[in-house]
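LOG
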Amino acid sequence: MADGLLINWEKQSLAHAKAYKAYLQRVNKNQALKVLPALHEEAFEQVDCLTCANCCKNYSPRFKTPDIKRISKVLGLRESVFIDTYLDIDTEGDYVLKTKPCPFLGADNHCSIYEDRPSDCRRFPYTDEDVFVKRQALTLKNTSFCPAAYVVMERLMQEIK
């Protein structure tokens, strides 16, 4: 990237965390929602998820009932066997992975169930939807480990003062 936004992005994200929190509390949500799709596209022109996979290595998506049904079928497992093998229930009552990294993540950072992955994986890092400005704690967490979320946050702060 020409302006070097991704150089030392992890340190920058940590250093900017308080500013991000304050910004998300005051930003005009409607204005932000208008520019997020373009910022999302811009970020993913710069960030290659296959070189990172931090999300798959360190965190778990929620597995909702439709996800469990779909993935179980693809893997040829009964839903109960899929759940017993791969999932636990977290403190919020959601199904999440038992292990990290994700058992479906290959050594090459490709997902073995990519076409059938959970909806949380499809939507992550939520940089083109209202979750980005409405669920501030989630966005702050995501900017700390996802370079695309970091880029979107930095650019959003530049776009809307």
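LOG (cont.) second protein
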Amino acid sequence: MAILACGHCGHLCEILKKEYIGKKVKCPSCQQVILVHDTVDLVTELLQETFRLNEELIKLRQRNPPTSDKQTQQQKGYAFANLSSSPLLENFQEVVQWFKAKQIEAKPDERAMDISGFFDEIAVQLGDNWAILGEICHKI
């Protein structure tokens, strides 16, 4: 059996006649000239390339091991967890100046920028544990 796999447009189809193997034909989708492959030979080449890439991935992971559980736990939640406000929300003067240039008076409410509290902490916990709690949330 023969296979036509176009590297230009991604078109893939089987060709029932073996006499096309090794011949160049136009892709039915994009009209680029491509080579018709023997199915078993192409699958063998693809598997060899997959195994080679997998070995390379293993070597790269050995050079750069994944982060430890302790590092992973520190990355969960917000970077400003347990703070009363986000450092990102403290510099609002540029926004006030932009509104002022448009002749709009803006008065930031600093109480609205308070990120501490029950709902914020619950939201972080839900996000960090979504794989476990997501189904429950959908049911609620």
